[in-house]
Each structure stands twice: as C-alpha cells, then as structure tokens.
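A quick aside before the break. I want you to see a complete sequence-to-structure record at least once, exactly as it would be stored in a machine-readable document. Don't worry about memorizing anything.
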Amino acid sequence: MTALGAYLLGSLPTGFLIARAKGIDIRNVGSGNIGATNAIRVLGKPAGIFVLLADAAKGFCAVTFLSFFIFLFFYGDKGDETMDAGWNLPIIAGIFAVLGHNYTCWLKFKGGKGIATTAGVYLALAPWALLIALVVFILALLVSRIVSVASMSAAVALPAAVWVMMPQNIFLGIVTTALGVLAIYKHKSNIQRLMAGTENRLGKKTEATK
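That is the input. The structure line, written in tokens, reads:
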C-alpha cells in the first residue's frame, strides 16, 4: 500500500501538466525532459520554479503524510514487534516516490531524473545530509556552470553524507546509494554530451538535466 501510494503520488508529471496547460508538449521542446530545469528554460522561471517545488513536495509528502497515515492505519493498534516493521515505511515511500517521478505510468514510464523529488524525500528523511548535498550542488554549479554536473555531484555527496552522519541506519544508507546510482544513470545522455563537449552551460538556451 505504501509503495503503490507513493509511486502514484510521485508519478504526477508536474512539468508535463504545467506545459500542457500552456499548450506545449514539453517532451518535444528543449531537452525533452519534464523536470524543473527544462521547465524553467521552456516555460520561464515562475512556472519552472513551481515545477521544482511541486516535484520536491511529492517526495516530501510521500515520506511524511502518506507514510504516517498508512503507519497509523496498519500499525497503530499493533504490538511493538509489529510496529517495528512500520518504521521503514517512510524510506519505502521515498524510494517509490522517486521511481514514480522517474518512470511515470502516465507518460509510458518516461519521466524526469528525480533530483527535485529526491531532495524532497531527504528533506524529510535526512535534512542535514541533504544540506551537505545542496552545498556540493551549489559549489559544483559555480565551478562548472553545468546543472547536470552539479546534480550528479549532489547524487554522490548525498549517500556519502548519509553513511557518515547516520551509520546506524544501514537500510537508509543502502537506499540512498541506490538512488544516487539511479540519478547518475538517468543523466546518461548528459554524460554523453559532457564527453562530447556539447553539454549546455548556464545561460544557454537549452539544457538536458533534471
């Protein structure tokens, strides 16, 4: 129930819907990605920032509100041993919210790259680790001026921070590492452009990221 609910919440294609409301199929414009960066470039900053916040909110709400209500419904009147199983629900919700965003069933399982949704998940699960990843993102962006480089740098920094700051939570460490690998995998087209020297920098008209 947690996995399905979180997946459906994460699968809401915010960028696609906002662009469609403006008469644009964002999959055919710019990088073709439905995430916030392409939305900013195609739809403008206000709409793009709304997409960014909405995508992050999907992850945050899945971890907090969705998992909380499911926990209460299924485990609220159970014994301590059964309740122990419920403590992993927020992590499970986070996993499937990101998967829902990355592979949305509403767009033939083609979605975004999960950076904003992952940020929302870890704002709830591990805010200090997220802060470290955010600092790494900003520094990498200032140095490279390439959003994909900054996003992948944060995808490496986040699991490292979780392992260092929360070593007792092995499940969360494994999940965060897997999500980091997935985020880098979703940037495979960006990596190809980086190797070819054709990846767009800040200030350019199009950029494939998020």
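Two observations worth writing down. The CA atoms of residues 16 and 27 lie 8 Å apart. The two ends are 28 Å apart (CA to CA). We'll return to this after the break.
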